[in-house]
Write a structure and sequence with these properties.
The complex is a heterodimer of chains A (187) and B (128). Chain A is mainly α. Chain A is built from nine helices and no strands. Helix content of chain A is 74%, strand content 0%. In chain A, helix 2 packs across helix 3 and helix 6 crosses helix 9. The longest helix of chain A has 30 residues. The N and C termini of chain A lie far apart (54 Å). Chain B is mostly helical and 128 residues long. Chain B is elongated. The interface between A and B is large, with 46 and 29 residues.
C-alpha cells in the first residue's frame, strides 16, 4: 500500500503524499515533542520534516522502511530546532543507583486517574535529558527495534542498549520521587 | 532486549505520554507548502526553458541579420530569402547545441562541479 502511494507521488501525483502525512503525523509529533519539549516547535519541526521528506523522496531506497527514514528526518529537524533554543536539563547520574523494582511503582502509578497519569509522566519526561526522552519514545512508545533506533539516531547499537537502560533507570527514579510526593499530598 | 515486567510497565507509562497532534489544519498546511515548492520548481523550470529559447532566438536573429547585411552589401553569394535564412540559422544553432563539443564540455564541467559540491555538503542540489 505504502509503495503504491510512494510511486504515485514520484510519478507526480503530489496529493498522494497526504497519505503519509495522515499516517505518520501523530508519531512524528510525539518524537519531535520529546526533543523540543514544546508544542509549537514540535509542530513546526514535523511540518519541516514532511517538506524535507517530500523534496528528497527520490533518494529514498524503497527496500528500507519509510517510517524509519521519516523519523530520522524528524529527529534531525527537531534537534536543529531544539539546539537553537538551548533548553538544557541537567543530567542525573545513575551510576551507583540500583534498578528500581517495577512493583514499587506499578501499584501507585496504576491507582492514579488517566489525566493524573498523563500529567505526571509529562512532568517526569521533562526532567530527563532530550536523548533519554527520545530513546524511550522510540523504543517503548513507537516500538522501534534497536537497529531501527540506530538508523534513526545514529547512536551505535551497543550504546543504544546501554543508554536505554540508563534512561529507564532515570525515568523510574524520578517517577518514584514524584509518586512519593503525590502519595504524601493525597495522605 | 527481552520484554520483562519493567519493560511492559515502561511501555504502559510511555503510552500514557502519547499526545496526538491537535491541529485539524495540519494536513492542509503541509500540503499547501508542498504545492508551493512544486510551483516554485515549475517556475524555475519554465524560466530555464524560456532562457534557452531566448538565447536560441537571439542567436538565430543575429545570424539572420548578418546574412541580410551580406545580401545588402552584395557579399551574399547564394543565400536564401529571410524565412529561408531564419530556418537555416535555427538548424545551425540546434546542430551547434546538440553536437558541438564547445557546448557539451562546459555542461560536463557544471555537472561534475554540482556532484562534487553535493558530496561535500552531503545534500542534493536542484538546479531544476
Amino acid at each position: 500500500m505504502e509503495l503504491f502511494y510512494l510511486n504515485q507521488v514520484l510519478e507526480g501525483n503530489t496529493s498522494c503524499f497526504s497519505y503519509f502525512i495522515e499516517k505518520y503525523k501523530d508519531m512524528a509529533f510525539s518524537i519531535a515533542f520529546r526533543i523540543t519539549n514544546n508544542n509549537e516547535d514540535a509542530e513546526e519541526s514535523v511540518q519541516d520534516a514532511f517538506l524535507k521528506a517530500f523534496k528528497s523522496l527520490k533518494t529514498f531506497r524503497k527496500e528500507a522502511k519509510f517510517s524509519t527514514w521519516l523519523y530520522k528526518i524528524v529527529v534531525n529537524t527537531a534537534i536543529t530546532k531544539a539546539k537553537r533554543k538551548r533548553n538544557f536539563v541537567l543530567d542525573i547520574d545513575v551510576g551507583n543507583i540500583p534498578e528500581i523494582a517495577a512493583e514499587n511503582v506499578e501499584e501507585v502509578y496504576k491507582s492514579l486517574e488517566d489525566a493524573g497519569r498523563k500529567k505526571l509522566i509529562g512532568d517526569v519526561l521533562e526532567e530527563l535529558i532530550m536523548e533519554d526522552r527520545l530513546l524511550l519514545t522510540l523504543y517503548y512508545l513507537n516500538e522501534n527495534s534497536i537497529d531501527e533506533i540506530n538508523s534513526i539516531t545514529g547512536i551505535k547499537t551497543e550504546n543504544v542498549k546501554m543508554k536505554l537502560h540508563r534512561a529507564r533507570k532515570k525515568l523510574y527514579l524520578i517517577l518514584e520521587k514524584k509518586l512519593h510526593t503525590e502519595l504524601k499530598n493525597i495522605l | 532486549m527481552e520484554d520483562t515486567g519493567i519493560d511492559s510497565l515502561t511501555k504502559k507509562i510511555m503510552a500514557d505520554s502519547y499526545s496526538k497532534l491537535n491541529d485539524p489544519a495540519f494536513n492542509d498546511i503541509v500540503m499547501g507548502k508542498i504545492l508551493q515548492v512544486e510551483k516554485r520548481k515549475m517556475t524555475a523550470r519554465i524560466a530555464f526553458y524560456f532562457f534557452i529559447v531566448m538565447i536560441t532566438s537571439a542567436t538565430v536573429i543575429y545570424f539572420t541579420l548578418q546574412n541580410l547585411n551580406h545580401k545588402i552589401t552584395g557579399m551574399s553569394g547564394n543565400l536564401p530569402d529571410i524565412p529561408g535564412c531564419l530556418w537555416l540559422n535555427t538548424k545551425k544553432v540546434i546542430d551547434w547545441i546538440s553536437g558541438n563539443d564547445y557546448f557539451i564540455f562546459p555542461l560536463i564541467i557544471i555537472l561534475v562541479f554540482k556532484k562534487i559540491v553535493a558530496i561535500i555538503f552531503k545534500r542534493r542540489i536542484n538546479f531544476l
